[in-house]
Amino acid sequence: MSSEVIFWPGLPSLPEDLLLARDQGRVLFVVGAGASYPKPTQLPDFGGLVAKIYDIVDPSMSSAIKAVSKKDGPKWYEVTDLLSHEQRTELKFFCQREFDVVLGMLERRIDGDPSKESTMRQAATTVLSQTIEPNPVHDALVRLGQRYGQTLLVTTNFDRLLSEAASKLRVQHEAFARGEIPNPSSSRDFAGILHIHGKLGWRKEKGSALILTDQDFGDSYLRRNLITSFLYDAARIFHIVLVGYSASDSPVRYLLNAIAADERHFVDLKRRYAFVGCKPGDERMAVEWQSRGITPIVYDKIDEHKALGDLLVRWADIIPDRRNEKGTKSYLKKLAALDPDSTEGLAAQSFLRYYARRSNPSEQAELARILSGASRSPRWLTFLNRIIRDSGKGR
After folding, report:
1. What CATH number has the domain bearing residue 145?
2. Could you tell me which of 55, 108, 115, 258 has the fewest CB atoms within 10 Å of its CB?
3. C-beta of residue 196 within 8 angstroms of C-beta of residue 183
4. What mean pLDDT comes out for the span 170-189?
């Protein structure tokens, strides 16, 4: 079983095997709407997107949605607004969080046959195009998504904020959507910011159709099997890590069903992970993810999921990267000054174990020099020698 690595007091630990797999180019991050919540981005989740679409195309329904969304608001069937039977049905499915079904009903009601240029889809584009400013989570994910000098990330988001973050960080990247997406491969050439649900137009780049309605999801996941096949293949090559998802949203079920394929039939699937925001003491949420074949990394979702952003930024700050060399060395010196048997020292051991296992012989020699400096406990060198011997990296 993988050891846990502690980065910082108050932040969740991460499995050492996951950290090592990322450093070896064997992790694929799949990014959801939650990555675009924090400031300054503040894009809505799927339910928020649906509500904003109604603000634009159907104000009478908008007020009803606001009413049922309140903590002590009425049930959908208790709303007194003068709504048609079609609107009340849409309101019912909104309360059931089946947002893809709601948008399909709305599109058929106001536009007839679904169309890329429908009123509903134009409204969705308007809402999602309101910001182009990435946040620290986007920046951290782009850094974590570096693989052999290129950016590799999968996202179900339509926004182009990961691309914007990559541009600002000056890292190599190229965006693809739907049919343009390359097949998963262990090759060094497999790269890109891959928008499996479609993408908005951005600067001079053309956008694609967006997967919004139940018909869209059924066509892409079930009938054409495009996304499902992509995820099946990816899950055999990479450890998939979900970031910014809620298991309660209906479109996420399509994604999870594809990723958490039956291991009785697919025995070569890699371990999958998900960052899961919970209230303290909420054990049910973790179990829900585990039952889908996903290993949850649980964090406290207080302060609009601040812990998630803090953890990703901390992780990005210690990966093997030229921009991290100075900061990582400073962090190692700070850990070396601790008493190995203290509470903080025991946490430091988890990071130093991971660092030694990921390092080459010259890096291990530099770590030994840091640990053997003035006023350092000699037990640190004993600890390091044991780790190197056990990992089989000693020469």
Report:
1. 3.40.50.1220
2. 115
3. no
4. 94
Q: What's the domain count of the chain?
A: 3
Measuring CA to CA, which residue among 244, 215, 98 is closest to residue 157?
Answer: 244
Domain shared by 118 and 192, yes or no: no
Whether 160 and 20 share a structural domain: yes
Domain that holds residue 122: 46-128
**Does any domain span residue 10?**
no
CA dihedral 246, 211, 68, 34 (to 10 degrees): 30
Could you tell me if 153 and 115 lie in one domain? no
Give a yes or no: residue 7 inside a domain.
no
- pLDDT score recorded for residue 264: 62
Q: Give the residue ranges of DSSP H helices in 173-247.
A: 214-217, 226-237
Q: Are residues 161 and 36 both part of a single domain?
A: yes
How far is residue 24's CA from residue 278's CA, in Å, rounded to a whole number? 30
Instruction: Let me know whether 269 and 349 are in one domain.
Output: no
For residue range 137-176, list pLDDT tens digits in order: 999 999 999 999 999 999 999 999 999 999 999 999 999 9
Burial zone of 174 (CB within 10 Å; 0-12 exposed, 13-18 middle, 19+ buried): middle
Q: Are 214 and 101 in contact (CB under 8 A)?
A: yes
Q: Kindly report the number of other CB atoms within 10 A of residue 115's CB atom.
A: 13
119 & 190 share domain? no
pLDDT-above-90 percentage for the chain: 70
DSSP 96-130: TT-HHHHHHHHHHHHHSS--TT-HHHHHHHHHHTS
Nearest to 193 by CA among 202, 209, 181: 181
Assess contact for 275 and 285: CB atoms under 8 A. Answer: no
